Structure formats: C-alpha cells, structure tokens
C-alpha cells in the first residue's frame, strides 16, 4: 500500500518538475493601474511593485508593455505555486519513506 503511494507521489513530483521547466520568462511583482488623482480617477498609469533581495521596488510600465509584463508576473506566480507543490510532494514522499523504513523488519547480525 505504502509503495503505491510512494510511486504516485514520485509521478506527481516528476510532473510538477516538468511543468517548472516550461514556465518561461518571469519576474516577481504586482502589476496595477494607479491614478495621479485617485478621487477623480484621472491620470492613469501602470505600476509594477515588487521586493527583491529585501528591497522594495517600483517601476512604471508603459501601456504597450502591460500585456508582456503581465505575462511575466503570471509566470512567476505559476513558478511559485509549482515550487510549493514540489516541496509539499517531497515532504510527503520523505515522510512515507521514513514510515515505510520504520515498519520494515530489521535484521540483527
């Protein structure tokens, strides 16, 4: 039973790793539309906010770049989700292997 679970987890982990390889170009952050006058909602512009190496940064994004930068941000979010999935699966796999090893009969010479 445990070996079937282990094989299933190994397949899921391999699939998540394969998906990681296909993520493509990315960048962290949040892309949002801001306004110079928020009350009147005038003077709209796009802003990318992110933290890198413990420093908060903000960049302006031109309207013609919004779609591309949005794709980069979405790719980064996908990358993070897949990394979390890999860690989760690896932990579950390690725990199952330890459990299986503990339940196996030990031979004393």
Report on this structure.
The protein is α+β, with helices and mostly antiparallel strands. It has one domain. Helices cover 53% and strands 24% of the residues. It is built from two helices and three strands; from the N terminus they run αβββα. It has helices at 2-21, 66-103; strands at 30-37, 42-52, 55-61. Strands 1-2-3 form a three-stranded antiparallel beta sheet, with helices on one face. The radius of gyration is 22 Å and the shape is elongated. It starts with a helix and ends in a 6-residue tail after the last helix. The mean pLDDT is 93.
Task: Write a brief structural summary.
By secondary structure, the protein is of the alpha+beta class.
Structure characteristics:
109 residues; alpha+beta; 3 strands; three-stranded antiparallel β-sheet
Helices and strands, with pairings:
Layout: H1 2-21, E1 30-37, E2 42-52, E3 55-61, H2 66-103
Antiparallel strand pairs: 1-2, 2-3
The best one-word shape is: elongated
Helix content: 40-55%
Average pLDDT over all residues: 93
Order of helices and strands: HEEEH
Number of domains: 1
* Radius of gyration computed on alpha carbons: 22 Å
Number of strands: 3
Largest sheet: 3 strands, antiparallel
Number of helices in the DSSP assignment: 2
Query: Strand portion, in percent?
Result: 15-25%
Task: Give the low-confidence spans.
Answer: none
Instruction: Give the termini distance in whole angstroms.
Output: 29 Å
* Spatial strand arrangement across the major sheet: 1-2-3
Structural class: alpha+beta
């Amino acid at each position: 039973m445990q070996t079937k679970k282990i094989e299933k987890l190994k397949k899921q982990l391999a699939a998540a790793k394969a998906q990681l390889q296909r993520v493509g170009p990315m960048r962290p952050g949040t892309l949002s539309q801001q306004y110079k006058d928020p009350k009147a909602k005038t003077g709209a512009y796009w802003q990318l906010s992110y933290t890198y190496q413990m420093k908060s940064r903000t960049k302006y994004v031109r309207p013609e770049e919004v779609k591309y930068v949005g794709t980069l941000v979405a790719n980064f979010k996908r990358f993070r989700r897949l990394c979390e999935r890999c860690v989760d699966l690896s932990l579950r796999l390690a725990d199952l292997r330890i459990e299986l090893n503990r339940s196996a009969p030990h031979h004393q010479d």
